[in-house]
Amino acid sequence: MNKNKKYLMTIFLLFTLSLINIIVIRSVRGNPDPDLVDRGPIYSSFSPLKVVPGGTNMSIRCDIQWWSLAPSGDFNVSFRASLNTFITIFDPEIAKVLVPSIAGGAYAVVSWTGTFPNGIPNNTYYVGWIIDIDNDVGEDVPGEANNAVYETSYQLEVVKEAELYDRGLSYSGFTPTEVIPSVTQFNIWCDIENVGLAPSGSFNVSFRASYNPIISVSDYEIAKVTVPSIMNGSYVDVNWTGIFPYMPFDWYFIGWVIDVDNDVDEGDENDVGMATFYPLEVVNKSDLKDRGPSYSGMTETTVEPGVTAFSVFADIENIGLKTSEACNVSFYASLDTNITTSDYYLGYDALLPLLNGTYLDATWAGIFPNITEGVYYIGWIIDVNDDVDEGHEGNNQAYILTQLIVKTPTVSGGIPGYEPLLIISMASIVSVVYILNKRKKK
User: Prior bond to 48 cis, omega within 30?
Assistant: First the structure.
């Protein structure tokens, strides 16, 4: 009986000690040997896989784990390009990143994004990193042996090729910001630069409308523009003007895909740009505009203010997709071709609702008003009171090319209130009477 008790007690003690041992080991794992280690290949990456020195933008990341209870202190990680899997300080350095102190048992995400440096020869490299390159962290001697790591899944190709990039938001844009598909004239532009080491050769830029800021070839194409070869170190302005194509009514981000047909051998093929973070609205609206100079005119080319009967006419058309509301067309006399409501007002005509694809005549007739003498353009503003919700408000002004002369007739010299002929006759009579009187005195 006593032997059985001792046996059971021994088993119980051994089992308890095992539990204690497991708990202690788990609670202080890594603490006896302070060590910085890479967290593993699933937490590291780089892109792109092909770069041009001094041109391509590159990104690298890795996770660094710190095994200790105390903070690590600050240290540096050096990213390197190596011809083999032994990453050393003799390999070309891509970049060095300062890592702030890591708390005990924690890890840090270490990343770098920048231009791949010059001076690294064309070749295929392993991308790796040396943790604590300057030995700032007190690690146990065995811990220093695992500080060199490399990306195992793929390699980096360094090439001497072109590298096309968008030049930035400051060099791009579009107008207008609201369009009617298949109706509105649209203008878009951007700058493309070649930061690579070779001329690009010709390529195409595809302007796109996207539901999100990530521009891709799956988005709606607005237009495609062919760009001649760009010398390395140079840039070109790429622009397109035309009728905005049909696409669903919605809000879109506007951008472009550079070298959309992959005609250029580049380091980084992620060639996209975006005009602005403010989107474009594609709308279903009416759009009123003047029908053109062939359908407008005036009855006189010279008028006397306050005297001459005068009329002006124009055709107004709705090129939009909806019937317009009723509105007014106001006519003006202007000293320049920029017709505004500050010019001399002549009169207006009321325009009835206008079906899309149709037009109406607008006319004003009356005595030309008293305005300053001069030479004027006669023009008009459609929907002068903004009664119509239009897709494009910038095409509501028009004018007649022939200018109108406004002047008061010149009055001949003489005594006010008497005709010149009458004055001459009276002068002659006076002269005759004077001569006769002189003869009588003789």
Answer: yes
Q: In whole angstroms, how far apart are CA 134 and each of 27, 67, 139, 312?
A: 30, 19, 12, 85
Q: Give the tens place of pLDDT for each residue, 303-320.
A: 999 999 999 999 999 999
- Predicted TM-score (pTM) of the model is 0.69
- End-to-end CA distance of the chain, in Å? 193
Three-class secondary structure assignment of 377-439: EEEEEECCCCCCCECCCCCCEEECCCCEEECCCCCCCCCCCCCHHHHHHHHHHHHHHHHHHHH
Calpha distance 141→32 (Å, rounded): 12
Q: What is the pLDDT of residues 46-103, one digit of tens each?
A: 999 999 999 999 999 999 999 999 999 999 999 999 999 999 999 999 999 999 999 9
Express each pLDDT in 226-235 by its tens digit: 999 999 999 9
Q: Do 354 and 394 touch, CB atoms closer than 8 A?
A: no
Non-local CB neighbours of 159 within 8 Å, separated by 6+ positions: 50, 51, 52, 122, 265, 267
Question: Is residue 28 scored above 50 in pLDDT?
Answer: no
Please tell me the distance from the alpha carbon of residue 393 to that of residue 351, in angstroms, as a whole number. 17
183-to-64, 249, 314, 408 alpha-carbon distances in Å: 57, 13, 21, 46
What would the two tokens of residue 300 be? 């006189």
Cis? peptide before 176, omega within 30° of 0: yes
Nearest partner of 258 among 270, 240, 242, judged by Cα: 270
Q: Which residue in the block uniquely carries the two structure tokens 């010279």? A: 302
pLDDT of residue 77: 97
Q: Tokens 């070309």 correspond to what residue?
A: 92
Per DSSP, helices labelled H in 28-131 are none
Copy the structure tokens of residue 432: 């005759």
In total, the chain counts a number of residues equal to 442
Q: Which residues of 105-129 are buried (b: 16+ CB within 10 A; e: fewer)?
A: eebbebbbeebbeeebeeeebbbbb
Task: Tell how strand 220-227 and strand 203-210 pair up.
Answer: antiparallel
Contact 377, 403 (CB under 8 A): yes
pLDDT in tens, 101-154: 999 999 999 999 999 999 999 999 999 999 999 999 988 766 578 999 999 999
